[in-house]
Sequence to fold (409 residues):
Amino acid sequence: MNLYKREKYLRKIRPFYDTDDLIKVISGIRRCGKSSLMEMIADELRAREIKEENIIYIDLDTRSYNKIRTADQLESLIDSRLQGHDLHYLFIDEVQNVAGFEEVLNAFRTEGGISIFITGSNSYMLSGELVTKLTGRYIEFEIYTLSFEEYEHMKEFYHKEVNSNPMVELNQYILEGGFPRTILIDEIPAKRTYVTEVVREILEKDIRRRIKIKDLASFEAVRNYIINNFGATTSINSLHGALRKTGIAIGRDTVSRYIQTLIDAKILYECNRFDMKSKRALSGEKKYYLADLSFYFALNTDNRINYGPTLENIVYFYAKSLDYAVSVGRIGKLECDFILRDKELNYSYIQTAYTIALSRETEDREYRALEAIRDNYKKYVVTTDYLLQKRSGIEHVNMMDFMLREDMF
Fold:
């Protein structure tokens, strides 16, 4: 089957295709498309007329390679595929299946002549073990589930119906989520079944196999609470107190450990709060966003959309996919939904809302925090409105149009 090209990520990796002194690590939540992205890279190499024998692709989950479990076996396999003195391209999927793979890959990297790409279990990739054992000689490319723009383009690519009404299409995206495989599934119940299976797989393979969870009910209570309250300002103390009121008695340290487990498995992403007057990060309260909105709807029977946190979630991951640092801003008693910073230390500020067209009070609330920011960086109010306001030099933009931008500065 032809693959929909995720150009946003490919262009980040292309400058490193021929780099043999850095291991390219492709990370992201399970089923977000890491393996497909590696296949796209291999296809682009073939299009450059790289010889097939110089492209070594090893998927350690397939029958052909699932008996490769030791470092010696992996080393022997790679050695057997090396031919001649041209640059080779080594792709290894699910690399954590081999104990001690780090030393093997680091040795081949040190020798040179091989450009190495790997994917693997997120809990392993983020645990610090990879950082230590590969001695910093790698570069990570984080992949997310489909953005709204990718969702529409991928539907068109696979000849799936795209609704001509952008709001209807946005609602479908919110309810269905952005896992690429769901594009090929037509019925909503079947899509939900698929996402539920993804959650189960993450729990089994990325969490239970690596972390001892004695009280599964308590862990699931923490998981469900955070998922059901995504986008809300949350602290360990407030979550601990809310759980105790429901009769779940677990310690604050355990709550903190469970949340970190969900972050390591890339189910949750943590967004810190930043005080714009003191220019310091605020400890304690944070916001948590879902790796994919479908998690909420797969684990709940309620199909009603709370647009406030939902639109925040969409904007947060769109900004992350462009490699921006993202935080929540506080200006006195006011809050700015997002402060974005690019790699050149430029800033921009974003407020999100479903609409500001219905009342002057809502409009004032969304603009007030941005108007309190005394600098000349770009400021946006992002809504689903098509009738756009002009106020205080702040740009009011439609959400669906905003998702087509690739520069917010």
